[in-house]
Amino acid sequence: MSRLEPLRTSLLVCVCGGAMVSGCAVSNPFATAAVDPGSPVAAEVSAKARASNVYPTFASIPPVPSDVRALPAFGRAANELEAAGAELIAETAPGTWTLTGTEAFAGRARDIAGPGITGPESTTAATEAFAKAQRARATPPPPPR
Asked: What is 105-128 written as a DSSP string?
């Protein structure tokens, strides 16, 4: 394969592409297309084709908003967010915290809950009846025979 082979291939692709595009540019099939008069939308198509439409101009582009932060501020905000994320990862990495002192925590929670809290067992008959009914309801059905 010679060194000119890729150049020839590129040139051939450009010429073929140009030929295909020029075929589209020469004739506009929509300019000469006729509308079937029996079509239910024929009147509307004809009216739309004859209507003079107002198209937007460059002057109708709205001005740049003034209440948006500058582009460098977006970069600073992204850097701050990444720094905060790295700080969070460093603070919660394995080995940075332990589960010691849970007895003191549980004792404070019991004090806040108030007197009369003896444990997980309920002292109310209505609560026990409700729990028993829910356990019975949650029992899976027997396997099919």
From this structure: HHHHHHHHH-TT--SSS---HHHH
